[in-house]
Amino acid sequence: MVLPPPWSAPVRKRRKILTVSTAVVAAVTLPLLMSPVVSAAGREDDDESSRATRLYVPPPDRESYRQVARLAWRGDFRDSAGLLAMVRTPQAIWYGDETPEQVERLVRRTTLSAAWQGKLPVLTLYNVPGRDCGSYSSGGANGIAAYEAWIDAVADGIGDRQALIVLEPDSLALLPSDCAAAADPDPAGQTDQTDQTGQTGQTDPAAQTDQNDQADQNDQTGQADQTGQADQADQTGQAAANEPPAAGEQPAELPPLPDAHASTAPPTGSAAPGTAQETAQPANPQPTAPQPTGPQPTDPPSTGPQAPGQQSTSPQTPAPDPSASQSPAPEPSAAQPSTLPELPPLPKPDPVTPDPDGATGTSDPTDVTDTPEVEDPETAARYSEINYAVDVLTALGHTAVYLDAGHAGWHSVSSIVPRLIKAGIDRATGFALNVSHYQTDQDSAWYGRLISSCLAYADEGGDPEDCADQRWSKRHARRWLRAHAPGDSSRMKHFVTDTSRNGRGPWIPRLGAHVDAEPWCNPPERGLGRRPTTHTGDPLLDAALWVKTPGESDGRCLRGTDGPLDPERGTVNPEAGEWFPEQALELVRYAEPAVGVIRRTTGPRH
């Protein structure tokens, strides 16, 4: 009998049937065969799991089961079993972009299923207008009214059943007022916006104090110079003051002077580098000849933050008090040209511009919560949206609501605490840390303790600017905690952390390897972290959760290029929220603690 060639149609058909059948059998039988191992992997973090709240396991992504089947068909049973253990671990269910009718139906289905199993579902709500500053996860509801209707639908879907809610990740750590900074390709753009000039929270006030002291030491000299300039301007006319000198004139005789009434420069260090700096320059910034009334500054004050080295190289160009430059110049004194007559009261600084005295502790503490960001309409709407969600969801009676607080490598404590207060943290259960990020458990626990202590301190009337910061040394921070933090954890706000992908901590890219490294976006060789549990051993940490679905992509991750490839991985990454097989395998292989899917149950064979 002559056998058909291997490329014939009947052989190809039989091979296809065999392949599909094997994949289906593997996908069906592996969950049954591995269920004891998966259960053990879910409990390995907690030997007293019977005392902890049981968390709900949602149906896995279909693509994850397809990947499990493909790995098993190739004979890669270790990775297949590890991946299966990962997708069958309790994790959050994300909702966003659905219509109110759709989200109500889906949330009701999830909470009913969890209640039937006697487990607690974790719901992540991600539909706030303008989310992610239009980046890889852009989207959200179309305005406040649409968002409130969506939140009402979520509440109707939950009903009187239990749920743990992580409310709008990145909604407070990435406000609309932060979007311009987020678009900056500078890798430091994700650091605290209020702490750009120093390495720790202690060095920034000192640097600003030095600038203020420099301004105070030269205040009278600067005012005398303005007096002398005004005298010269009266003698030569306003035209000479507003126009540059002719080509044949000597600059030493009469340099052009800027209008004393036109300066609106903010205090040094109050704006981003380069902000409005060009408009502060005079028409001809040439140095002037010494005047009888004293030395004159050669350049106008810079509006951006300056390093100490920049000030020390130009001691002859002090930065006068900006509020003084905004007030009318006093009448010159002919009898005492080198002395300054009594000045009129200084105008109150603009509330958006930090008070130069704020670094020395003389600013009004009631204005502290208004200074971290500009209150533009979009930011004000964001606070209104989060407050509405807090009120609606906490009123259900069986929900725990946690607000976004970023992560330990982003905002300082004094920056995030005012945002939490404005968003209604006093009515919420607590706050969530490290959602979709990679900070270690130790850093997140310390950061959470500092935030919780600062919230309690502010609730008693303290100034959040005085709170201990995560960049302080542990010795100084503990000293502050002993002096100001409540001893009873029940009087403090609790928090939850996302441990889904932090097994190896944050990714540190090679210096200069990318225009914008985007270390938060599908970083390579990261691993699963601590298994989800509500038995944490920390009185302030309510739960370690897998909030981000491990295996789902963060986005294209172009890292400052035109794409479409991720320059770090050399591949086209899936869109945000889609299954990413390569990253899923990395999370299993680099998990810490390791995924225990292969365990020896008998002695070695002889």
UniProtKB/TrEMBL annotation:
Q: Report the protein name in the record.
A: Glucanase
Segments of skewed composition (Low complexity):
179-242, 262-283, 304-341
InterPro entries attached to this UniProt entry: Beta_cellobiohydrolase, Beta_cellobiohydrolase_sf, Glyco_hydro_6_CS
Per UniProt, the keywords (alphabetical) are: Carbohydrate metabolism, Cellulose degradation, Disulfide bond, Glycosidase, Hydrolase, Polysaccharide degradation, Signal
Pfam families given in the database record: Glyco_hydro_6
User: EC annotation?
Assistant: 3.2.1.-
Signal sequence range: 1-40
Enzyme class, first EC level, given as a word: hydrolase
Identify the Gene3D superfamilies for this entry: 1, 4-beta cellobiohydrolase
Q: Which organism is it from?
A: Streptomyces hygroscopicus
Which intervals carry biased composition (Pro residues)? 284-303, 342-354
State the coiled-coil residue ranges: none
What does the similarity note say? Belongs to the glycosyl hydrolase family 6.
User: Where is the organism placed in the taxonomic lineage, from the top?
Assistant: Bacteria, Bacillati, Actinomycetota, Actinomycetes, Kitasatosporales
Q: Where is this region: Disordered?
A: 179-382
Cite the SUPFAM superfamilies for this sequence. Glycosyl hydrolases family 6, cellulases
The residue ranges flagged as biased composition, category Polar residues, are 360-369
Active-site residues from the entry: D170 (proton donor)
